[in-house]
Amino acid sequence: MTAAAPLLIDAGERILGHRFARPDLLIEAMTHRSAARRAPGTSRSLGSNERLEFIGDRVLGLVIAEWLIERFAHEQEGELGRRLAQLVAQPALAAIADAIGMTEMLAVSPGEARAGVKTRATVTADALEAAIGAIYLDGGLDAARGFIRRAWEPALTAQRVPPKDAKSALQEWTLARGLGLPRYSVTGRSGPPHQPVFSVLVRIDGPGGTLGEASAEAGSKRVAEHEAAARLLAQVARA
């Protein structure tokens, strides 16, 4: 444990509203893979937040699904599914991580810090899921549920109606204007094989050329396409 660890633990417990019996879990949750040590003779990170992110993602989905069933008793699977997809998507997680002040707690390598990795939505969203995983392993499902419901309350309350699937909504927008279908393309792939990051570009073409485009990054092509579509929708809505 480093000299800065007690300060990180105190700040983390205040932010998350959970006192850790195993503070090492909180430190692990806040450690980006660039700052983790390597297993001898391998490329595997020891002590990074990737394992906690894995379980935190599953806990988050369960708790939000349970909450939606309670809150919207009249809605069916399709409506609930669209609500869930938006609430657990990378932009929502990154916004919540920023709102609760988690960004500055992240431990990253000096080089990644200079590159601004702490501000990347992929990194902050992953750290938030890792924090949920840490709370779950330390205090159980009730502790994780308490944090999630506190942190996600504004986002869930803001969903007055079930959101539309972003790709479907963008397609409706273009077809209604006689523009044809949006065009999606994968522009890049980075990260290790077990945790790839896909870059996707979506473009709307018109008679005079490109009318708008947006890009996004995510751990799957499907999610990246949806996030790029959502960004392009926001663009054309302001136009």
How would you summarize the topology of this molecule?
Layout (H helix, E strand, L loop, with lengths): L4 H12 L6 H7 L7 E2 L6 E2 L3 H22 L5 H11 L2 H10 L10 H5 L6 H19 L1 H18 L7 H11 L6 E8 L6 E10 L2 E10 L2 H18 L1
Antiparallel strand pairs: 1-2, 3-4, 4-5
What does this 3D model show about the protein?
This protein has 239 residues and is α+β, with helices and mostly antiparallel strands. It folds into 2 domains: 5-158, Orthogonal Bundle (Ribonuclease iii, N-terminal Endonuclease Domain, Chain A); 166-238, Double Stranded RNA Binding Domain, CATH 3.30.160.20. It is 56% helix and 13% strand. It has 10 helices and 5 strands; from the N terminus they run H-H-E-E-H-H-H-H-H-H-H-E-E-E-H. The strands form 2 sheets. It has a 3-stranded antiparallel β-sheet, with helices on one face. Strands 1-2 form a two-stranded antiparallel sheet.
Structural class determined from secondary elements: alpha+beta
The CATH homologous superfamily of the largest domain is named Ribonuclease III domain
At CATH level 2, the architecture of the largest domain is Orthogonal Bundle
Domains counted in the coordinates: how many? 2
On the 0-100 scale, what is the average pLDDT?
87
The CATH C-level class name of the largest domain: Mainly Alpha
Residue fraction in strands: 5-15%
Spatial strand order of the main sheet: 3-4-5
List low-confidence stretches. 39-45
* CATH level-3 fold name of the largest domain: Ribonuclease iii, N-terminal Endonuclease Domain, Chain A
Shape: globular
The Rg value, from CA coordinates, equals 19 Å
What's the helix count? 10
Helix content: 55-70%
**C-alpha termini separation:** 52 Å
The number of strands is 5
Largest sheet: 3 strands, antiparallel
What is the string of helix and strand elements? Answer: HHEEHHHHHHHEEEH
